[in-house]
Amino acid sequence: xxxxALHWQILIALIAGIIFGFIARSLSFESFVIQxxxxxxxxxxxxxxxxxxxxxxxxxxxxxxxxxxxxxFGRMFTKTFIYYIFTSLAAIxxxxxxxxxxxxxxxxxxxxxxxPEGLDRSVDGIGDTLLGIIPLNPIESxxxxxxxxxxxxSLLFGFFILKTPDKYKTALTDFFNAVFExxxxxxxxxxxxxxxxxxxxxxxxxxQTGFDxxxxxxxxxxxxxxxxxxxxxxxxxxxxxxxxxxxxxxQAKAMSPALLTAFSTASxxxxxxxxxxxxxxxxxxxxxVSSFVLPLGATINMxxxxxxxxxxxxxxxxxxxxxxxxxxxxxxxxTALAASIGAAGIPMAGLVMMTIVLRSVGxxxxxxxxxxxxxxxxxxxxxxxxxWSDSCGAVLIAKSEGEALKV
Length: 407
Description:
Helix content is 76%, strand content 0%. The chain has 18 helices and no strands.
């Protein structure tokens, strides 16, 4: 009997995890799920994170050197940057319109008892965030898993390989191409265990939180979901169809394994290996484009996170009865864009970066406690939108480069 396609395996694992988590909570053995079953999910995430840094370094350097000359590098970088900024800004404006239309925080009286982990480390200014992109020690940044400095160093290293004499250029290009091939083989092996990891992660979340936590926050959740849905199901499909004549449904089908993994792991970086595989094998994007566009997108293109930060900040102001002026809301938009670029592609990174947005307009940081309970679920949704936007950017840029796609 033929084994189901990977996206079907992941979907089955997702549904099974929800059912198992609910049963565990109902029959009071949720501690077993949280302490033991969740280990399978933790192992899966650690395996994915193990390959992230070497995969990013090898794929970016390989991608840059495959552009052959600085003109190709500049063209690709410009297209990628414009797409990422435009879609992130579109997402934020969608969220801004939704939160002002539905006003979920008005007449809402909520208590908060938790403080998010890492809050004390997240109050650096935007300037510090931007300075952090430049690594003092590239090797240390790679060892610590700091993705933005790693990406910048890899881009520069790949670019200046093109400036060396042919003898060295050929040797270095062949070396990083070989490393990339090995990393992709290793990644494909790890991806086979995705359904097991998804089952463990989802069952843990349901066993831990249940469904009661969502009831007091339904209006806020609804506003976030509406904003994300408009951006993911209307804005991005229109962009790839109008500018690239790419069929949105075929693209979504091609990306289904990566999107389901993004939802279950809530991590753009952890999903990156599967995103690259889906874009190349299912959508027909060349490695030349995917290895350049997707690692950048997994770190700096956070459409879902940007939308969420805008909505959450204004929701908090509404709960506290603070009316933000047009200028203050514009500042929220600008800061949310900058914060989303600086957010790491890891679970709940957007929640920590939220402190920058709140401080920009003088809102109390304690307001984060209002949204903490439902954030894990919303994190899964916004990460899925992040990965969907990355994939749309990859196929759009590939089409602009004259590539023949499968979508």
